[in-house]
Design a protein that fits this description.
This protein is mainly alpha-helical. It has 3 helices and no strands. The two termini are 85 Å apart. Keywords: Coiled coil.
Length: 155
């Protein structure tokens, strides 16, 4: 006959074994869930890295375009300055036309010009003046666009 203490020990061992098997199953399931989570997180990390790389590339493109626009704007400013210098010269010519109108014909001979040349200069002056105004509006629009890009990039 089996001793009651031995039965108790055997029952405990059997209970611990079942509990250990159950715990092992639970741990295996948890391990599988953790493996899936790690795989999912790895994919998300890779997606975020790809997205970050795309953003960096777009930022570089925007910076390049911004620098190109700044260079274009500098060139346009230089053209505008030259135009202003030409306008100043035309203004002097316009003053010369006023002298002609006030009865100083010898100044035309001194300059080697005739009235038709003066008229052409005046017409060109007004055309260049209008072109200068148009260019100034373009310059202002370009400056506004660059400012908007800077504000957007700052966000």
């Amino acid at each position: 006959m089996v001793c009651p203490g031995a039965k108790l020990k055997a029952a405990r061992r059997l209970g611990f074994q079942r509990e250990a098997e159950h715990t092992c199953e639970v741990l295996q399931l948890q391990a599988q869930h953790l493996i899936r989570d790690v795989e999912r997180l790895t994919l998300e990390r890779d997606d975020y890295r790809n997205q970050r790389d795309q953003w960096e590339e777009m930022a570089n493109t925007v910076n390049t375009e911004k620098e190109e626009l700044k260079a274009d704007l500098r060139e346009q400013v230089a053209v505008t300055r030259r135009t202003q210098e030409q306008l100043a010269a035309i203004s002097e010519t316009h003053n010369f036309q006023d002298d002609l109108d006030s009865g100083k014909p010898d100044s035309v001979e001194d300059m080697g010009c005739d009235r038709s040349s003066i008229g052409k200069l005046i017409v060109n002056h007004w055309k260049e003046r209008e072109a200068s105004r148009t260019q100034a509006m373009r310059d202002n629009a370009a400056i506004e666009e660059l400012s908007a890009l800077d504000r957007q990039r700052a966000l």
